Amino acid sequence: xxSINKKADAYRFCKAFITNQYARxxxxxxxxxxxxxxxxxxxxxxxxxxxxxxxxxxxYIGMLNADEKIDDGVILEYGPGDIPGVALLLYAxxxxxxxxxxxxxxxxxxxxxxxxxxxxxxxLPLAQRxxxxxxxxxxxxxxxxxNENHIQYVVNKKGLSGFxxxxxxxxxxxxxxxxxxxxxxxxxxxxxxxxxxxxxNKVDLKSHGLHRGxxxxxxxxxxLLWNLMYSEKGTPNRWRLDEYKRILNHSHLKVMFxxxxxxxxxxxxxxxxxxxxxxxxxLSDEDLSCLSFWFKAQKP
Length: 300
Prior knowledge:
The chain has helices at about 5-25, 25-35, 45-60, 85-90, 110-125, 125-130, 180-190, 225-230, 240-250, 265-270, 285-290, and strands at about 75-80, 95-100, 135-140, 140-145, 150-155, 165-175, 195-205, 255-265, 290-300. It is of the alpha/beta class. The protein has one domain (about 5-300): Rossmann fold, CATH 3.40.50.
């Protein structure tokens, strides 16, 4: 925990600061160096990865009402990572076009990623598989790349689309906790949506591996030091549930629900509370305990 082992903290700061400068100066090179996929660093098979994308797709669709259909809709997905697996499934099941927006150009049709795409196609019924096969420059051939008329990547260093009244749905999963300016991203969602359009997002408030011992230990680092260590790497911005609620309530979107789905115990909070950084000291146990949540909102 920060301030407990000063030598370890000093070493961690120096290492993180240097790599943060690397990420600032050469973000593309840094992503290649860390083998960043957008899904974490765990080992996975092509089938496991395909099933993950299928789960993401199913959960998004499960959050929509009966009258909110993706058929012939234009969709924006934030943070697709190196494989537009969700976009492929969205198009297969009827979307007209899917835009994938990211801060870095991670897309790669490597041998493994090609196997993942084939595994996704194998999950689909015949009609949907045939439609998904239209997404490639050469029909049914993932290694030919994605046809921009169906799935188009938009790379912006701020991770914003810049769209205006263009899409029917916006989706994201484990993305908003990485953005440097949540307000700007929420505003971008609102601007991109057509009137009546809907956004569904899952936010992961955990440390993403950047803690030692207590899972909230990463909240003990002062804001200045944390920014010097991680601001350019796309690592968690550390904002908690209260900040998302505040931003959403001040946005032009109508919040339909905010649902916390993963929490930590009070014992964990009590252990870390004396060491919390200034910006988190006054938070309630409820806000600190939330480790992930869904929210759904609509453009009036």
